[in-house]
């Protein structure tokens, strides 16, 4: 994709090359899964191809494919360098595939950076917009700061264990050295920054709000899910043996509760749907943190379902947002009358985010709650989680109320083509089918 | 397969109805509801002949051990019958009303019917939860889109209340699921599980709050009067006639057999809350001037009595509750039919603006009197036997509780007779003098209600026999374990 801009003159065609690229990547990933069978390591043991990584990569590539289809045309409106934007998204995708299969801390560092640097650029892609510039700078500064913390954490872990390999660090045996403990805390905090968990979430609303909407859709979904997978891999493989878990589980549980409460309560007071989605992404991050805190098989199943349910629904919502002129709640007033299909699709996506049964979001939440309940000592966190889910219904339903029960003429600023409608219906079908038969995804694990 | 058909008919026809326009939507949904009624009656017959043929199990999510397991016991059959009778009555009552976007309106109504039947037939806890929510979502849209001026915020409050309660129940379901040896959601696994007393103690509240919100029991009732008032009447009929029974049903099907010790520990608290609700709601009902709110508060009082009787821990009260679930459904739908007719004619809800209707619409006045008397459980009406059994059961448990709850009978007579006096007797005004009497469609709907009222008032045996098996199961599994 890097060179696509050199050869393709018509900017509108670049999207099709990108779509073809995701299809090739998808096939390659599937082939990789077939080749690896159960599990295998490559690159001197630095990467591990397993059913989890293959499935997650499949979900990430599939969601990127859907993202290109639904939001691809909006790339042209951001600026001149359309081919570069697509290329940057592919770079991020490359980083995502590494997060799903790293087995070495250096590879984790590389993966996080490969994901982050293109995002700093994409956040500032709308060069003439001051908010976009601010978002980019803010993201870059906080991101660089986090990188430093992550690197420090990795260095301390190496110092304590003498290994970068997450399976060979042997943290669970013997007494835990203060060095290792600091390393765990620092890597934990750095990853909490990346997934915008409270109290490290302050960059999120401004960056998501300031970035061109089309890129926010990508940052808030697939990228976030990937960061969670990195989180899970590191904590579940290296930090979950012996008595070590006790050191970080309570801290992470408190971070989870804080993320849920702050994300949900702040989202309630937002006036713009885009900003509400930014805060809701913090709230959803709180739910996804359940998967990290509860380290069991159900958690892995849950994060897979969450990745697909949350990504498809949020990409769908953002793609509809991109078509609207006004991003405030009032901008949605009467959408059900002017664009019934858009309103219906948006409703299904919002119901999925709220976790209503018969949508994929329900089973995503169900598995993560199950994982936490199974853990036994986290029931208080589960109760906080479900009460927050009830609060989340408030802001998601505000959009539904605006679309269906308020009078107005929600205006669109882009043509709503038949093809786009067809894609939306497909995305809705995915959400509902996975809401009835979540086993369709889980069978690959 | 009959049980699956009961769910599938409204589900599929509901989805089809979304695509229909104009009168086709109401005709189609009426036909669909009649088809459901026929299947429900056949299922009822089948229940007495070969009950095991009504069970249906199909693998659903093997990774979770959840099955699509539906079936009918006596109580389930009775509630499915109530649902199947109610929907045609509702559709006939509003047949002459023209709703905006009829396809969506009737489609959502049928989807809520599918959800309700699903709740009453599910024998898998996860499936039960899914149907529980499926019944809620269409009602949310129905109330918000076709309700009164304040419908949107009011319905939203109702939704958030119920959703929060449901989520707490979900946590309880997940917890119990992990305790089952075979990791299954099936009713059999849940009920055969021996949970520790400590677990049952807190799990009780997770379930009870969800059911108490739905019933509603004091202090979880605050959503109810506003929602009943603001909802369009057909939806209020669904809510008060059938949906509140979901809470009572949940207690009998899931709470008592799964958490018997929890229920035993907290039964007194539950009864006291229910009795507070009875007295409190009856007193407020007396002060109401809005007809819809009066009926809403009277419903809180009636449901409160049923909730108290469930926890009274004996066979008579349990049988009384189940019989009353059916009879209350029929009576309150009858009341709402009359309210809908009055509202359709006069477009007012305030009782101080009414009066003298009896002179201009005598048939309407007679049916309102009959339904009101059934609602206060006069002997020879269907309400009597249920209330008698419930009070008798409550008396066996604690005479004081029965005495205080018994005040509800007097209070109910006060507010219902006061309502009758204000609405149909007295001086007519310019508006009420224009009231026309019942039309043939309305006569058909309310006539059917009155036939049921008198038939079950004189001969309640079929109903008692139908629910007898469930009472036996609950008493065997719930209190003895």
From TrEMBL, chain B:
Pfam family, one: Proton_antipo_M
Keyword Membrane: yes
Protein name: NADH-quinone oxidoreductase subunit M
GO cellular component, one term: membrane
Enzyme Commission designation: 1.6.5.-
Family: Belongs to the complex I subunit 4 family.
Broad class of the protein's primary localization: membrane
Keywords: Membrane, Oxidoreductase, Transmembrane, Transmembrane helix
Domain NADH:quinone oxidoreductase/Mrp antiporter transmembrane residues, every copy: 122-407
InterPro entries (alphabetical): NADH_Q_OxRdtase_chainM/4 (IPR010227), NADH_UbQ_OxRdtase (IPR003918), ND/Mrp_TM (IPR001750)
Membrane-protein topology: Multi-pass membrane protein
Membrane-traversing stretches: 75-96, 103-123, 129-146, 158-178, 202-223, 235-256, 268-287, 294-313, 325-343, 364-385, 397-420, 441-459
GO biological process terms on file: ATP synthesis coupled electron transport; electron transport coupled proton transport
Molecular-function annotations in GO: NADH dehydrogenase (ubiquinone) activity; NADH dehydrogenase activity; ubiquinone binding
Subcellular location: Endomembrane system; Membrane
């Amino acid at each position: 994709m890097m060179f696509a801009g050199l050869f393709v003159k018509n900017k509108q065609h670049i999207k099709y090359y990108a779509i073809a690229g995701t299809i090739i990547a998808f096939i390659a990933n599937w082939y990789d899964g077939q080749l690896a069978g159960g599990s295998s390591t490559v690159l001197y043991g630095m990467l591990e191809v397993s059913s989890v990584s293959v499935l997650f990569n499949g979900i990430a590539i599939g969601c990127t494919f859907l993202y290109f289809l639904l939001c691809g045309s909006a790339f042209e409106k951001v600026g001149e360098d359309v081919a570069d934007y697509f290329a940057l998204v592919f770079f991020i995708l490359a980083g995502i595939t590494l997060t799903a299969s790293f087995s070495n801390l250096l590879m984790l560092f590389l993966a996080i950076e490969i994901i982050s640097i293109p995002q700093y650029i994409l956040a500032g892609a709308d060069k003439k917009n001051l908010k976009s510039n601010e978002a980019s700078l803010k993201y870059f500064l906080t991101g660089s700061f986090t990188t430093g913390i992550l690197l420090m954490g990795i260095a301390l872990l190496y110092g304590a264990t003498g290994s970068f390999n997450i399976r060979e660090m042997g943290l669970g045996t013997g007494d835990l050295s203060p060095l290792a403990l600091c390393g765990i805390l620092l890597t934990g905090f750095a990853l909490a920054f990346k997934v915008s968990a409270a109290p490290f979430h302050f960059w999120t609303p401004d960056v998501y709000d300031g970035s061109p909407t089309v890129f926010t859709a990508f940052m808030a979904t697939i990228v976030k899910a990937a960061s969670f997978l990195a989180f899970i891999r590191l904590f579940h493989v290296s930090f979950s043996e012996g008595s070590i878990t006790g050191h970080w589980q309570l801290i992470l549980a408190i971070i989870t509760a804080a993320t849920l409460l702050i994300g949900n309560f702040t989202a309630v007071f937002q006036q713009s749907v885009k900003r509400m989605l930014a805060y809701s992404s913090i709230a959803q991050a709180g739910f996804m943190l359940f998967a990290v805190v509860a380290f069991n098989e159900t958690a892995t199943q849950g994060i897979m379902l969450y990745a697909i349910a949350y990504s498809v629904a949020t990409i769908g919502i953002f793609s509809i947002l991109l078509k609207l002129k006004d991003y405030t709640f009032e901008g949605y007033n009467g959408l059900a009358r002017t664009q019934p299909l858009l309103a219906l699709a948006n409703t299904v996506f919002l119901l999925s985010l709220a976790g209503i049964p018969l949508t994929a979001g329900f089973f995503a939440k169900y598995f993560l709650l199950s994982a936490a309940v199974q853990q036994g000592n986290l029931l208080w966190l589960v109760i906080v989680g479900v009460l927050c889910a009830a609060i989340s219904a408030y802001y998601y339903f505000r959009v539904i109320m605006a679309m269906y029960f308020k009078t107005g003429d929600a205006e669109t600023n882009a043509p709503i083509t038949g093809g786009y409608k067809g894609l939306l219906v497909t995305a809705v079908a995915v959400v509902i089918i996975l809401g009835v038969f979540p086993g369709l995804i889980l069978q690959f694990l | 397969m009959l049980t699956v058909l009961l769910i599938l008919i409204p589900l599929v026809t509901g989805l089809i109805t979304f695509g229909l326009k104009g009168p086709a939507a109401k005709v189609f949904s009426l036909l669909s509801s009649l088809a459901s009624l026929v299947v429900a009656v056949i299922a009822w017959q089948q229940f007495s002949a070969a009950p095991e043929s009504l069970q249906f199990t199909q693998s659903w999510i093997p990774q979770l051990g959840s099955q699509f397991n539906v079936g009918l016991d006596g109580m389930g059959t009775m509630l499915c019958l109530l649902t199947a009778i109610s929907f045609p009555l509702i559709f006939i009552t509003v047949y002459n009303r023209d709703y905006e976007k009829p396809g969506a309106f009737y489609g959502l109504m049928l989807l809520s019917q599918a959800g309700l039947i699903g709740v009453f037939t599910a024998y898998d806890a996860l499936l039960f939860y899914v149907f529980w929510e499926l019944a809620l979502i269409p009602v949310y849209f129905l109330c918000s889109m076709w309700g009164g001026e304040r419908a949107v915020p009011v319905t939203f409050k109702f939704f958030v209340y119920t959703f929060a309660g449901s989520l707490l129940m979900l946590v309880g379901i997940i917890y119990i699921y992990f305790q089952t040896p075979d990791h299954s959601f099936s009713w059999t696994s849940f009920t055969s599980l021996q949970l520790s007393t400590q677990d049952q103690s807190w799990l009780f509240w997770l379930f009870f709050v969800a059911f108490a919100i739905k019933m509603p029991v004091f202090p979880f009732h605050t959503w109810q009067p506003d929602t009943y008032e603001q909802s369009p009447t057909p939806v209020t009929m669904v809510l008060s006639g059938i949906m509140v029974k979901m809470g009572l049903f949940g207690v009998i099907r899931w709470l008592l057999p799964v958490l018997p010790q929890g229920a035993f520990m907290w039964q007194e608290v539950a009864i006291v809350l229910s009795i507070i609700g009875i007295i409190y709601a009856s007193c407020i009902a007396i002060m109401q001037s809005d007809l819809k709110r009066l009926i809403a508060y009277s419903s809180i009082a009636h449901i409160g009595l049923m909730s108290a009787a469930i926890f009274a821990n004996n066979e008579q009260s349990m049988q009384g509750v189940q019989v009353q679930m059916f009879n209350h459904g029929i009576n309150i739908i009858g009341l709402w039919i009359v309210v809908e007719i009055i509202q359709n004619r006069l477009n007012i809800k305030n009782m101080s603006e009414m009066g003298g209707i009896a002179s201009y619409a005598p048939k309407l006045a007679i049916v309102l009197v009959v339904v009101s008397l059934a609602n206060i459980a006069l002997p020879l009406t269907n309400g009597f036997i249920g209330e008698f059994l419930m009070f008798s059961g409550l008396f066996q448990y604690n005479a004081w509780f029965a005495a205080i709850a018994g005040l509800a009978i007097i209070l109910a007579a006060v507010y219902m007779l006061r309502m009758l006096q204000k609405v149909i007797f007295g001086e007519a005004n310019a508006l009420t003098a224009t009231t026309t009497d019942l039309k043939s469609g309305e006569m058909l709907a309310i006539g059917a209600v009155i036939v049921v009222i008198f038939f079950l008032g004189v001969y309640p045996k079929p109903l008692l026999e139908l629910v007898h098996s469930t009472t036996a199961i609950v008493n065997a599994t719930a209190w003895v374990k």
